[in-house]
Amino acid sequence: MSSSAPSPSRSTGRRPSASGDAEPAPTDETSRAHLAADPKRANGKGSLRRRRDSWEVRLSLPDVGRRAFALPGRWTEATARSRMDLLSEMADRLSAARQIAVGLPLLERAAVSEGQILAGVRNAIDLLCRGEGGAKQTEATFADIANAWVSGELRKRYPDHVKPLEDVRKYRSNFDLYILPLVGQVPIRQFKIEHAELVMRNLPQRHSVGMRGKIALRINRVLGFAVYPLKLIESSPIPRGWAPKGDRGAKAYAYLYPDEESRLIGCTKIPLVFRVYYAFLCREGMRCDTEAGELEWSDIDFEHGVVRLDENKTKRPRAWKLSPDTLRALCLWRKLAPKGSFVFVGSAGGHLPGRSGAVDLRERLKIAGIKRPELFEHSARRQRIRLHDLRATFVTVRLANGWTETQVMDRTGHTTSTELNRYRRAARTLIDLHQSDFAPMDLAIPELRALAESEGGGAVDGSSGGAASGSKKSGSHPPTAKGGGHGRSKGKQPAAGGTDAPPRVGHGLGQELAGEPCRSDRSHETPGDPPDRDGLQPPGGSFAPAIPEASRPGHGSWGGQRSVAPVLRGGGGGVNVIG
Question: Which residue, 245, 246, 217, 207, is CA-closest to 116?
Fold first, then answer.
């Protein structure tokens, strides 16, 4: 019967072929012959594959199995095969030393490295194979402590001895790029000065002494934690003074002249938010990223005109009274700024300065027609202008206009007179050039001036009535203990509406918000001299705000008779706030 017919594959040992005929089933002998013809790839031997945009090397490794290593896609096939052979050789050495699991990060680094960095990976593998870099499963490695520090775990366990990190991303990047690939697998008890020197030798040559010093301090700090509070080693193998020390005063720094700053913030080709941001940095002296960049509206007391910085680099909270022109400008800017908590917001919605603040600043200086060579030169003795140098601009200009060290340090957070010494020579140069103080911020930025002219009223805090600053001194003068300013009128003010009275900018904003008229328009006043302090009194008289000729009354974008209200209207599209 058909139901009792034996299955071909079970009873006869034959299976049907593609043609329908039965063929012999594989026996033990045929299986062994097949394996002999196609042997299994030995450990450490690799294969090369081409992916869409890269090469891939596959290695069979003892204890960890098959692993894939990506190679740069720009390499030729010959170069990729050469690197495959090198990886196979390294894997064989690590396998013989029983360090293959620990050495996996080194193999991954070797797959994409060239030149000096590849040489450093070779040295690290040499240390591992000599038994100077291997760790037992229960033994803490350098990477274990570094990762615990950066992740915040160490801070949670020892809050009294481990401070929180300000910028975790920078620390993580430093460790992942330069330190852990070379020495991360080293047991902390076996870490030697040679391991630290290996990292330093393999840093890219483009890095400055300052950057190299930061990497060295990262290594030193991890070893310090291993000493205490972890108590894993008795003392650090790194000798005192090992970290590179740069000559901080070696390079000449760049700063803007007041008239250049006026041209920069008055150039409407530059997005408004950046011009307000640059003007604020120059007038208030904050750090560009962690202070001004993260400044929130809630940090400003508009009723009293005070700004506070509770979180800053020095960990010492600061607060001060804003310059009147800065306060007026911020009141106007608040009406134009994108909604949100940050005062300065970029086009992507994040706070300024973004990822390329220095490059953008230099490009915008050129757009504004500022081409002074020393702003863009970079050499062993000169640093081209960076965004941080707007803070240096603040210090230099304020010292040149009679501010004392104490007054400057209250704003900047510097703690010693030595930190300000480098700015003194530049301040004297500024005096010799007969450069002046900054122009009033609310008048030097065309859009803010236009908004002030277009409004019929308003108070500093945005409500009806009320005064913010309580003072009419110009932002160019140093603050005084009594709250008064220098440069006030020594005579009577002309009657309002008199024929000899200059046009008053922002007259509809209230007396305190409008402040004093620009000094360039004060022909009827006798401006007071800033105090003669620190030998910085200008020869022959006091300073007046720097106003480019094109911006003086009758000539340009923000001064005098010509109205700038059309700036707000533009071509029918409104103000270009963030670009």
Answer: 207
